[in-house]
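DM from R.C. (forwarded with permission)

"hey, sorry to bug you on a friday — could you get me a structure for this? deadline for the figure draft is monday and I only need the backbone to look sensible"
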Amino acid sequence: MSSEGVSEGKELIKVEELTPSSRGVNIIVKVVSKSEVRNVTGRGGPHRVVDALVGDETGCLYLTLWDDNIDQIDEEDTISITNGYVNLFRGNMRLNIGRYGNFEVLEVSPITEVNTENNLSLKRYEQERRYRPYQPRYGGRRGYQRRRY
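My reply, with the result:
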């Protein structure tokens, strides 16, 4: 097999092949820039979060970095992400490492230039509604039909 980390049987894909429903993403990307650290409060208390613009020769998108991962990745680093995923944040695609994914900073970069013209995170996608609209559980005559004799 090739020397690009595919020896574990994981097929690498390119940025332009990512979709909003991509799961189990194995990809090599180069960090173009990092945003300022934001402090957010979510499940489990306060967290630090950063959006890093990453990409390859086919395109770029934002990678969301949380807490300890922020300090492990710097601008111009090339990272190999294993078992990452893509989700929509406010209608825009974001690449995530997640709980079950991991990453490794590569010493030698196979990426020489990042195509920042094709930014997948700038495209708007229709986001599926997470929750059903409110429907009262009890009361009213919904689901109960009066018998007619």
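R.C.: lifesaver. The helical segments are 68-72.
me: no worries. The first strand starts at residue 23 and ends at 34.
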